[in-house]
Amino acid sequence: FLTARANAVFANSYYEGDLAWMDLDAPVEITIGPYETYEDGLFGYKAAFESFVTAIRVLKGDDVAAGFTAGVRITPIEGTEIGLGYRSGIEHDLDGEIDTPTGSIDVDYNNVSLPEIVTLGVRQRITNSFRVMAGAEWANWSRFGTVEVEGGPAPFDLQFDYEDGWFFNVG
Question: Is the dihedral angle over the CA atoms 48, 49, 51, 57 positive or is it negative?
Answer without folding.
Answer: positive
